[in-house]
Specification:
By secondary structure, the chain is mainly α. The chain has a single domain, classed as Growth Hormone, Chain: A (Up-down Bundle), CATH 1.20.1250. 79% of the residues lie in helices and 0% in strands. The protein contains 8 helices and no strands. It has helices at residues 2-15, 18-21, 24-47, 53-80, 84-113, 119-143, 152-155, 162-166. Helix 1 packs across helix 4 (53-80) and helix 3 packs antiparallel against helix 4. The protein is elongated, with a radius of gyration of 18 Å.
Length: 169
Amino acid sequence: MIAFAVGNLVGPLAIGHLFDTIGRRVMIAGTYIGSGILLAASAVLFYSGLLNAITQTACWCVIFFFASAGASAAYLTVSEIFPLGVRAKAIAVFFAIAQCFGALGPVVYGAMIGDGSRPARLFIGYLLGATVMIAGGLIARRLAVDAEGRSLEDIAPPLSSDDRRAQDF
């Protein structure tokens, strides 16, 4: 678990600044799609019997390095599209939804692992996770906000501003 925690921590610290320089849309899409591709590759290696506990852990650490940075930036970017008055509530709602789906992970993957005699089920689960990550990256590429180098007020004016009232929703 410590290795996974290190991957989760180092990713945002090492590449987090790129989300504000290269661009969030590009970086979120890239980290999600890249994580999905890496997860699919590790699934193939796992199913082929080419990974042991150490190499599997190393693969996941690399995946978490990129996925954690992308997920952190995605939370921030989603919150930025909301006006200042509801931004904290938006973050809380998105976090709560994510936690509900995250809570299902042990149940779903526990069912896939079972007694360990059917690795094909876990392989399919990994590919499903990879597909979800890649789909998230493609959606981010299309819909994410170009927030780099802009103030939050430029992205979503406060509810009390004249600009906000003039916008057509």
